[in-house]
Amino acid sequence: MKALMLCGHGSRDQGAVREFAGLAEKLKARLPDWNTDYGYLEFAKPIIRDGLDRLRGEGARDIMALPGMLFAAGHAKNDIPSVLNTYAAENGVTIHYGRELGIDLKMLRAAGERIKECLRADGWQDGEPLHDTMLVVVGRGASDPDANSNVSKVMRMLWEGFGFGWGETCYSGVTFPLVGPGLTHAAKLGYKRIVVFPYFLFTGILVRRIYDQTDGVAAAHPDIKFLKAPYLGDHELVVETFVDRLYEILEGTNNMNCQLCKYREQVLGFEAEVGLAQESHHHHVEGIGSSADCKLCDTTCTGACRAEAIGGHAHPAHDHGHHHGDDHGHSHAHGHEDHDHHHGEAGHHHAHDHGHSHGHGQAHGHDHHHHPYPHADHPLGPRSMR
C-alpha cells in the first residue's frame, strides 16, 4: 500500500492544531491513492507514533514521511528523524524521510497571494508601484543560521518580486532581531506604509504576538500605516508543495541543503556543533500539554499558564525554552523566554532545568544539554516576544 505520514510539531493552541489537521485532510484529498495520516512531535495529539501505528495497522510496511515545516533546523534535522528511526527499528518497517518545504517558487507564490490580500484591503490595485511601501517578513527564528537565512531569502525574493521600496527581516524568537526592535528600526527608514508578513504556516500565540507588537509600534508611530498580512495557512500552493516533496522521495531527488548545515559543516560561529548526536528531546512531552489539558484557556492559548507559573517558579509547557531550531511555521509558544543561559564546554544548560508544569498537575523534571547559541546575549534578542 502507498502510505504517507505528515509530521507536525504540535502546539498548545487549538487553532494551530486544527489548521494542521485541516491541511492533512487537504493532502489526503489531493492524494486519493495514498493512505495518509499525521501526528505531532509534542504538545498535541495524535503523536507521530499514533499515526505510524495506524498506517502499520492497515498493512503499511514502507512509509513515506514528510516534516510539516517551512525550514529545516533542529526539529526537522534531528528530532523527527530520531522519532522515525526509533519507530522503524522497533516495528520492522521502512520509513523514507523527505525534506522540508524550503525555498520554493510555489511557496513564494502563496506568500505573494497573502501579501496581495493585505495590500488590496488597503486599496492597492494590482500593478501599482510599491516604491513608497516597505515589507517586513517575520520568521519563527531558530538557533540554526541556515534556517534563519532562509527567511531572509524569502524576504528578498518577495521584496524584488513586488518592487517594494525596502525590505527587512525579523523573528519571533530565539534569534535576532525580534519583532519589536525590528519594526522600531523599520519605522526610522522613512516609509509611510509598512507591510508586516508572518511567514508562518499556522495561527497561534506567536502570530497573535506579532500582530500585537505591530499594533504597539504603530501606536508609537501614528504617521506610518502598518498593514498586517495573513500567514500562509493551508493555501493550495502549500498543499501542492507537500505533494512535490512526496514525489521527490519517490524519485530519489529529496536532497536537503547540507552545505550550510551546522550539524555537518563548520558554519561560522557554530563550529562545535558538527556531528551533534541525532536524538529527539521531545519524548517527554509527546501528547502532553495540549490545549485539551490546559484549564486556564479555552480554545486559544493566551500564555496564562506562564503568568501563573512564574509566581510559583515553575515553567509551563509552552514556555520551557528548549526550542532549538525550526522556522517551521508552527505558532507554538515555547520560545526562549525567561531563562538564563549558562555556557560550558559541554554545551548549553538552561538554568531552570525544565522542571515545568503542563497545566494538568503533571510535572516533568528534565535537564537538556545543547550546544550554546553563540548570540544568546544579543541586545536585540533572542528572547521570545511577550
From TrEMBL:
Biased composition (Basic and acidic residues): 316-348
Domain of life the protein comes from: Bacteria
GO molecular function, one term: lyase activity
SUPFAM superfamilies linked: Chelatase
Residue numbers spanned by region Disordered: 316-386
CDD domains reported in the protein's UniProt record: CbiX_SirB_C, CbiX_SirB_N
Record's compositionally biased regions (Basic residues): 349-373
Pfam families assigned: CbiX (PF01903)
Keywords for the protein's UniProt record, in alphabetical order: Lyase, Metal-binding
Name of the featured protein: Sirohydrochlorin chelatase
Organism: Jiella pacifica
UniProt lineage: Bacteria, Pseudomonadati, Pseudomonadota, Alphaproteobacteria, Hyphomicrobiales
